[in-house]
Each structure stands twice: as C-alpha cells, then as structure tokens.
C-alpha cells in the first residue's frame, strides 16, 4: 500500500463576526433560529445590499447549505434564489478579494433531474461593467470542504489570481459549486446544469444595471473547471436557451474520461482516476462498486471519498499524493474496470463533444499534458468544429497539466474580452481538421 495513505484527515474551523444570514422568498425557508425573515422582495435592492457580512462554518455544519425536502424544492424554477448572504472572501489566507461578494443558494437539478440546491459565490468589482463571467474552479472534490463557496471564505482558494484578471476588467464573476451537494466529480450533466442555473441566479439577484438577462455571458475554466464549462456550453441551447452566451475559454479538459483514466492509471496522477470513480458512482447507481471492488478497493474508495485534488491549503487529503503510481487493477474484482459495460456506458455519456454550441471557443492544452492525451484534445477541438461551433481557436501551452493553468490564463481573458466587445472571433477550424489528420 502507498506510504502516503497514512496522511490523516485534518479539520479546520474559522471564526468570523457573528451576524445574521438572510433568506429570500420561495417555497422553502430555513429554520427561524438560523435565518431571519427575508425581505419582502428579491428586488428590494436596499435590503439586499446593506446587510452585514455573514459568519461561516464548514458546509456540513452550515445551515446555508441545507437541502430542503425534494417535494418543496420541486416547485422552484431552475435558478430561483432560495436564500442569500453577503460574505467576505479571502485569498491565500493573507489577501482579501477586491470585490463585494454575496453567496446565493439556488434551485437546480442533478443529472437525473432530481431537484437540489447548489451554492454560488458572486463577486462584483468596484465599477462593474455589463459583463458576466461564470468561472468554474477546478475543485475536483469528493467533499464539500473543497467547494468554492467554502474555500473562498476560508482563504484556501488557489485560483483567485485567475478570477482577479476578470475583476480587474470590471466583469462580474460568479463561481458555482457545480458538483452539487453530493460532490459528483466529473458528472457532466449535473455540472453543466449547476453552472447554467448559477448564471440564472446571478441574473435574478443583481441590480439590472449590473447584470440582467441581456448581459453577455462567458464561461471559463481549466481542467475539471473546463469540463464543467464545456458541458454547460453543450447543453445550454436545450437547458437554458435564453442565456446570451458569447464565448467559452476551456483549458485542459478531460475530453474522454475513459482515455484519461487509461493515461493516468499507474502513474503520478492515478489518484485522479480513483477520484473519478467515486464521483461518477455517486451520480450513477449502475456503477456497483461493492461488486466491482475488492476489499482493498472498497477501502480505497472510502478514503478517496473524503479527499480533493490539489486542495492542500484546505487541509484535505489529496488522492494524487495518496495513490500515486497505483494501478486500478489491484483494487478490482474484474480484469479491466473500464471494460465493464456499465462503466463504458457512463464514460460514453460523459464524453465531451457530443453536441456543438453557438458560442465561439478558445481551447488550450498543455503539450505535455499527463491527463488528457494530445490526440484527444485535437479530436475534441475538431469535433466541435464539425458540430457547428461557429469558431474555434486551439492553442498548445508550454509545460504540463498543472503549469498550463497559468501559462494561457491571460490569453483566455483576452479572448473573452474580444467576445464581450463583439469582435470577430478567430477561427482555426480548417487548420484543426488538418492537424487532426497529422500524427502527434
């Protein structure tokens, strides 16, 4: 067994000024002892934006994250705000975020259509422009302790420098907990709907001179955040056709989950594969881990189920560290886990590129990416061209999967700025089709 496995689970609680958290009207209201009476109308701007900063605790202990009874939640339209609170976000424990901030609990649904509540954090710069960016953090989590709504408050958010590039341009930024309350890591439709309904919630919440239903919207994310962004883009025409999506920037997404699993198994990033199994098994009962895993495998999944990838600042175990160089074969009762029909069906359902979308795309990929093979990236970019995405720009980034988070960040923001400005998007689809025909 890997020596990192002895790394114990740590907990960390942060105290803040005790003030009241407020609810906004819909079918369900939190308990009176936890939340005050909501203002008469969500449109009551003075009531909404003059409240003191709310306290926070870990999500499992925070009534703001509570899930209502499903029958009560079903009456709320997607994007309906159930409650909100002003918050004081922190970055890296030491530096504040230069923006006013609120969190909203909003109605959405998982991949099976089951109603649920997701949380989004809304950041508004000092001089907001009529631009809305939905930024999908690559939080890659199996526990809500790594959700952006918590790490933005605890000071352990590692992607703040990327959001700050947007805030400095005056864009309003919404950061959804798109994995949902069960932390369904890499469950595509669940993630995409969580993103789109967070955009709807932001449209419902902010004053019209900041954001309204006509405000242009862009999506941006890297790795797991790119996966959620692209799923949102792919389903937007059917699920949320009124959202005015003008551009998407996506870096290093796992284009084909089965291919990525094969690429990382037995290597440094093997823990990503194991984390994906946990996340997808939460979304799909058809993945029967009790039968497919041996005793060591069941122990491994239970351990991974309390972990997050790349969230060491949150004091949570990282499966990439704990299970580096492990092989899935050592944990299963079958010869090839990816060949199990139920697993094949799930990975096929979550493969990116099954439909196009109406917004231009900037797709960037690390040349030496260890998670998504170059061939998969080129194939996905060309597939989007063939599926009707109006313009695709594809760029290789220097470095490997982690370093490429930063190397193309400025280019991604510049690309989205051009889309917000209404400039003609660069289109490399002809070159992409030629590149696809060339050897790696």
Question: How are the SSEs ordered, and which strands pair?
Answer:
Elements: E1 21-23, E2 35-36, H1 45-49, H2 70-73, E3 81-87, E4 90-91, E5 95-96, E6 100-109, E7 115-124, E8 132-136, H3 148-154, H4 160-167, E9 172-176, H5 188-205, E10 217-222, H6 224-239, E11 245-251, H7 257-264, H8 270-283, H9 289-292, H10 295-304, H11 319-322, H12 341-349, E12 361-366, H13 374-386, E13 392-397, H14 404-407, H15 409-420, H16 429-437
Parallel strand pairs: 1-2, 8-9, 8-10, 10-11, 11-12, 12-13
Antiparallel strand pairs: 1-3, 3-6, 4-5, 6-7, 7-9
Helix pairs in contact: 5-6, 7-8, 8-10, 13-16
What does this protein look like?
- This protein is an alpha/beta fold and 440 residues long.
- Among the domains are: 21-215, Alpha/Beta hydrolase fold, catalytic domain (Rossmann fold); 257-349, 434 Repressor (Amino-terminal Domain) (Orthogonal Bundle), CATH 1.10.260.130.
- The protein is built from 16 helices and 13 strands.
- It has helices at residues 45-49, 70-73, 148-154, 160-167, 188-205, 224-239, 257-264, 270-283, 289-292, 295-304, 319-322, 341-349, 374-386, 404-407, 409-420, 429-437, and strands at residues 21-23, 35-36, 81-87, 90-91, 95-96, 100-109, 115-124, 132-136, 172-176, 217-222, 245-251, 361-366, 392-397.
- The strands form two sheets. It has an eleven-stranded mixed beta sheet with strand order 2-1-3-6-7-9-8-10-11-12-13, sandwiched between helices. A two-stranded antiparallel sheet has the order 4-5.
- Helix 5 (188-205) packs across helix 6, helix 8 crosses helix 10 and helix 13 (374-386) crosses helix 16 (429-437).
- The longest helix is centred in the middle third of the chain and has 18 residues, at 188-205.
- The protein is globular and about 60 Å long.
- The two termini are 36 Å apart.
């Amino acid at each position: 067994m890997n020596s990192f496995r002895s790394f114990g689970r740590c907990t960390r609680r942060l105290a803040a000024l005790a003030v009241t958290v407020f609810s906004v009207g819909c079918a369900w209201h939190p308990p009176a002892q936890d939340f005050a009476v909501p203002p008469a109308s969500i449109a009551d701007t003075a009531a909404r934006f003059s409240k003191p900063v709310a306290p926070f605790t870990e999500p499992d202990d925070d009534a703001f994250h509570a899930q209502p009874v499903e029958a009560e939640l079903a009456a709320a339209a997607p994007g309906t705000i159930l409650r909100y609170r002003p918050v004081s976000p922190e970055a890296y424990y030491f530096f504040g975020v230069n923006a006013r901030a609120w969190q909203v609990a909003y109605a959405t649904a998982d991949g099976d259509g089951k109603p649920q509540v997701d949380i989004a954090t809304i950041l508004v710069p000092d001089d907001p422009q009529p631009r809305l960016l939905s930024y999908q953090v690559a939080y890659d989590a199996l526990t809500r302790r790594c959700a952006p709504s918590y790490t933005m408050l605890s000071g352990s958010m590692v992607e703040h420098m990327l959001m700050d590039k947007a805030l400095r341009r005056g864009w309003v930024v919404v950061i959804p907990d798109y994995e949902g309350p069960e932390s369904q890591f890499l469950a595509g439709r669940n993630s995409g709907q969580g993103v789109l309904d967070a955009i709807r919630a932001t449209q419902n919440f902010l004053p019209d001179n900041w954001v309204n239903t006509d405000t242009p919207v862009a999506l941006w994310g890297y790795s797991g955040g790119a996966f959620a962004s692209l799923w949102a883009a792919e389903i937007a025409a059917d699920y949320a056709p009124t959202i005015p999506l003008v551009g998407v920037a996506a870096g290093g997404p796992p284009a084909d989950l089965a291919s990525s699993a094969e690429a990382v198994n037995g290597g440094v990033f093997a823990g990503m594969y194991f984390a994906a199994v946990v996340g997808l098994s939460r979304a799909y009962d058809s993945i029967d881990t009790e039968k497919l895993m041996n005793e060591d495998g069941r122990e491994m999944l239970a351990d991974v189920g309390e972990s997050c990838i790349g969230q060491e600042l949150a004091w949570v175990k990282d499966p990439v560290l704990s299970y580096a160089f492990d092989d899935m074969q050592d944990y299963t009762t079958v010869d090839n886990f990816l060949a199990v029909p139920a697993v094949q069906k799930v990975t096929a359902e979550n493969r990116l590129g099954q439909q196009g979308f109406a917004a231009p795309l900037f797709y960037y990929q690390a040349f030496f990416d260890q998670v998504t093979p170059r061939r998969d990236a080129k194939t996905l970019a060309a597939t989007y061209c063939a599926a009707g995405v109006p313009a695709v720009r594809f760029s290789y980034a220097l470095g490997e999967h982690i370093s490429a988070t930063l190397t193309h960040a400025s280019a991604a923001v510049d690309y989205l700025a051009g889309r917000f400005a209404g400039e003609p998007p660069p289109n490399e689809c002809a070159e992409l089709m030629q590149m696809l025909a060339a050897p790696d």
